[in-house]
Write a structure and sequence with these properties.
It is built from no helices and eleven strands. The protein is mainly beta.
Length: 115
């Protein structure tokens, strides 16, 4: 059974930083493209960042230069380092693993950027 478990969310002030982690089990982690998505209230889910099995990355324009995605295949974990956070980054952040027709999701972790 595939499981993706996110952690690291919370409340942070504008300009602050958080690091999200997503621990995967039940799949061959190294061959999957891993992604972070977010959904704010009243909005559609959007891609934040993605990293392929080969380490190529892409980011939403709104987070370029502030967020960094990385993966540790030895730990079956993908990370999202978020710096210079803004109130508009407030959302539920979810981890995704994709390989071919296989597509898995975590339950999400809340990130709130507020004073």
């Amino acid at each position: 059974q595939v499981q993706l478990v996110e952690s690291g969310g919370g409340l942070v002030q504008p300009g602050g930083s958080l690091r999200l982690s997503c621990a995967a089990s039940g799949l061959i982690f190294s061959i999957h493209t891993m992604g972070w998505y977010r959904q704010a209230p009243g909005s559609q889910r959007e891609l934040v960042a993605r990293i392929t099995s080969g380490g190529s990355t892409n980011y939403a324009d709104s987070v370029k230069g502030r967020f960094t995605i990385s993966r540790d295949n030895a730990k079956n974990t993908v990370y999202l380092q978020m710096n210079s956070l803004k109130p508009e980054d407030t959302a539920v952040y979810s981890c995704n693993a994709q390989f071919g027709f296989f597509d898995y999701w975590g339950q999400g972790t809340q990130v709130t950027v507020s004073t």
